[in-house]
Amino acid sequence: MSIIDGRLISSKLKEEYREKISKLEHKPFLAMIRIGDDPASEIYVRNKGKLCGELGIPFSDIHLKSEITQEELLEQIDELNSNDEITGILVESPIPSHLNIQEVFDRILPRKDVDGLNSLNLGNLASNHPTFIPATPFGIMTLLKEYKVPIDGKRCVVVGRSNLVGRPMALCLLNANGTVTVCHSRTKNLGEITKQADILVVAIGKPQFIKADMIKDGAVVIDVGINRIPDSKKIVGDVDFENAKDKCEYITPVPGGVGPMTIISLIENLIKTVE
Questions:
Q1: CB atoms within 10 A of CB 148
Q2: Which residues constitute the domain of residue 65?
Q3: Mean pLDDT for back-to-back runs of 10 residues, the chain (275 residues)
Q4: What number of helices (H) and strands (E) belong to the chain?
Q5: Count of domains in the chain?
Q6: What value, to the nearest 5°, has the Cα angle with vertex 114 and ends 7 and 25?
């Protein structure tokens, strides 16, 4: 068993990107929109802004009231689209339930959609055309590449089908010639399917849901989950790490696996806006 160290890889990429950004004639500029007062969103935006600052990337943190209307939000997107100084736009999720998140993503110009969630960019990913890839799947693909995990011809199982992770993750693996199965809440005999996976990616938001007996010996397991145990400060993934790790060739820990790669992958997308 070997641990896939997302902190190590993201730290290495950070230095590579710092040098690359320093040589750019035109710097990327990131506009981040946060709606309401979700504590997690506040932390995520702050961390993204901190990294941008460390890398010399100008950014704007736009905090909007939770009562904002769909029309007002779309007008804000239009203003950012028309601002030539801003090269990348992202809207932090979750957003208030009265707002249509996909309509918001689709309002962002595809060339400024550094989250890769505009329908055109997702369509390009499905067609295996060059595009912005959502940051978490992008980061996972980078981890697999850095650890020289072969995908071509391998049986890949993705547990979860969200537009943020599961669906684009499956497309990334398919584009890399993996044989891909997507599982979700309606999947029957889930354990029988996950146990066939050479590469298992889990993104379902259920703490320690995937048990050791659901994993193939020698599998590569990527755990996207971040779950706080009630009445505890402990953070765990969607995989029962302690009991599963010895069955795996590679496995990501939580925290310290996929998480650090998500934010650094956003930076790579941002650099692409000015290349």
A1: 7
A2: 26-109
A3: 96 96 94 92 90 95 97 98 98 94 97 97 97 98 98 98 96 98 96 98 96 98 91 89 97 96 96 95
A4: 10, 11
A5: 2
A6: 90
* DSSP bridge pairs for 234: none
Q: What is the CATH number of the domain that holds 92?
A: 3.40.50.10860
Q: What is the pLDDT of residue 43?
A: 86
pLDDT recorded at residue 50: 94
What pLDDT score does 70 carry? 98
End-to-end CA distance of the chain: 39
Output the CA–CA distances (angstroms, integers) from residue 191 to 43, 90, 213, 220, in the order listed.
Answer: 35, 36, 8, 16
Give the global pTM.
0.95
Whole-number pLDDT of residue 105: 97
Residues in the chain: 275
Rounded-to-integer distance, Cα 241 and Cα 225, Å: 11
> Strand locations in 83-218, DSSP E?
88-91, 155-159, 179-183, 199-202
In terms of Cα–Cα distance, which of 224, 208, 218 is closest to 246?
218
Same domain for 105 and 145, yes or no, is no
Can you tell me the distance from the alpha carbon of 30 to that of 267, in angstroms, rounded to the nearest whole number? 9
What's CA 167's distance to the chain center, in Å? 11
CATH number, domain of 207, equals: 3.40.50.720
Based on the domain organization, do 157 and 98 belong to the same domain? no
Q: Tell me, what's the pLDDT at 44?
A: 87
Token pair, residue 170, equals: 């499956």
